Amino acid sequence: MPPRIIKYTEAIKEATDQIMEIDPSVFVIGLGVAYKNGADGTTSGLKLKYENRVFDVPVSEASFTGMSVGAAINGLKPIVHHGRVEFAYFAADQIFTQAAKWNYMFGGDNGVPIVLRIAVGRQWGNGPQHTQSPYALFGGAMGLKVVIPSTPKMAKGLLISAVKDKNPVIFLESRWLYNTKQEVPAEVYEESLDKAKVFKEGKDITVVAYGDGFIASLEALDFLNNDVSVELIDLVSINPIDYETIFNSVKKTGRLMCVDTTHEAFNIGSEIISKVVQNSSIDLKERPTSISCPNVPCPTSTALTEFYYPTKVDIANLILKQFNKPKIDKKLSFEELHLAPGLTIL
Amino acid sequence: MEINFLQAYKKMILIRIAEQEIADHYLQNKIMSFVHFYVGQEAVAVGVCDALGKEDKVMGNHRSHGHYLAKGGDLNKMVSELLGKENGLARGKGGSMHMIDKSVNFIGTTPILGSVVPLSCGSAFEQKYNKKDGITVAFFGDGAFEEGIVYETLNLANLFKLPLMLVVENNLFAVNSKLSDRRSPEYDIEKIVSGFGVSYVKADGNDYEDVFNKTKKIIETVRTGKPAVLECIAYRHMAHSAPIFDEGYREEDILEKRQEKDPIKKVKQSLLDSGIKEEELVIIEEDTKKIVLDSIKFAVDSNYPPKESLYTDLYAS
After folding, report:
1. Which ipTM score applies to this complex?
2. Between B88, B122, B317, which is nearest A67 by CB?
3. Is B43:B263 a contact under the CB 8 Å cutoff?
4. Topology (CATH level 3) of domain A5-183
5. Residue A209 pairs with which residues in a beta bridge?
6. Pick the CATH number of A197-330 from 3.90.1150.10, 3.40.50.920, 3.30.70.100, 3.40.1080.10
7. Do residue B118 and residue A62 have CB atoms under 8 angstroms apart?
8. What is the overall mean pLDDT for chain A?
9. Is A66 close to B112, i.e. CB distance below 8 A?
């Protein structure tokens, strides 16, 4: 039988459909989720199948998010969709102050089993107010669990785990990855919400990446031939961060590079590097390095965005630099620079 | 449910005496939990909760000691929470602003103004989703009613036809900011609420009978999925926070007026008119005071949570 290759968006829809079939307390809510091709295709057809469990809503993010938190407090399992993180900001109180604190402030036994699917990050032509990637904001909010699926297979397994979890899970989807494809199991399966994954084993350097930065890092490996053996880690969760997996890898390789697709200031790579260099049981062969976006909002013009996000070539060259190997000189096409990748991940 | 002044009196006097005694302890610096006292507004909590059934759920705000006790809460657990003790409602992690007790369907309070409105709407959503009989009631103030999320939720609640009743306790002040500094003269809460298709009823928050009767009537339609706002005009006898009697900012609700309109005085008069003897009420008052002092002693004698408790409960498992 040929491998079952599906898109990232299809993996999300499949996970939603399957978990709704299993658990009648799961419902989907958000702007446009009831459309035929709702939420970038991630909720396609669900309204037809589950008429009374898929809710389009007024343009009132604070209110419908808060209502979903209230429903979760009372035992339902909402999957809330925010198509852009900037709109989820309207619901900041309900996410950070209510859902995230509810169990702790009432001394336990008060879980809030809600999943907030929030799209973040790059997309051509979207500019400063439609492309923010506030990973640190969510990663630093105690009481939330925060996952970033980097591949279709992880997207499906993580979403199923997120819905089954008793706590608020922020599911940050990099819109840039929606067209990526991968072989995804047809059955229901779970991926751990708090474990990083060693995606590819290697011995010379540990590269930690997530979301669209993970895909760029994966593509960067193609430029390295057999010159450097990279251990590529899919970070998966930024709240909490799985330091054990990272430490074990860096102990082996002695080198670390972190890839962020958000501002250099207060990014996830800085957090990881800080913990690694403070760990006296790790012998580093080189100073850890990181690559990220400049400390400005993402502009709209392609003449500027060309230099905003780290590319697969930038990532490959930073890896090569650690080994004093010559830079590769490869010019990326307009499509490679500015259009979302449609690659099939092996 | 028929009106029962004696039962109402007992509940209201319990809230009143508990708050006064807790205030005394606060002044002695024994309570290290930010407090907002309910003295003066007892007729609202008791009038509303007496008209509810056990299956109905209640949520509140930062000023919710009275709401909790009116729903049948446990005074020992409440005072223990205020004192930061392990056997408190939230094991000492919440304090005065975080009352919760699911055993009496009191499902939580939050001091972020307006936040409780969508949360309670979600509770009503769950009741409808699972075809349950109960409704959800949220208590909050006139200040919170100015938060944008409240207006959004009025629309949402009626769009989804949810069994939700919002009780706005209008005590004329947001902290010390008076209504005329916060709303234009044309601001009309009835028109706003009705404009969303939500029922609006106004009650005298100093009058138990009025609150009870109006709640009883309106919740019949709330149960059918027509949300409602019940606005109760009441006087806050103490300051916004802490047991201070600051008179400087008051206009309508000066001391003489508060004493004249005191909701407990009114219920007491109804009881005397019905033939109950003054001495009986004095005995109730004395017994209540004893119960309250016992509760405070119980809480004082209770253990603080162990250090490890700091790190637990971040997530539910």
Report:
1. 0.96
2. B122
3. yes
4. Rossmann fold (3.40.50)
5. A234
6. 3.40.50.920
7. yes
8. 97
9. no
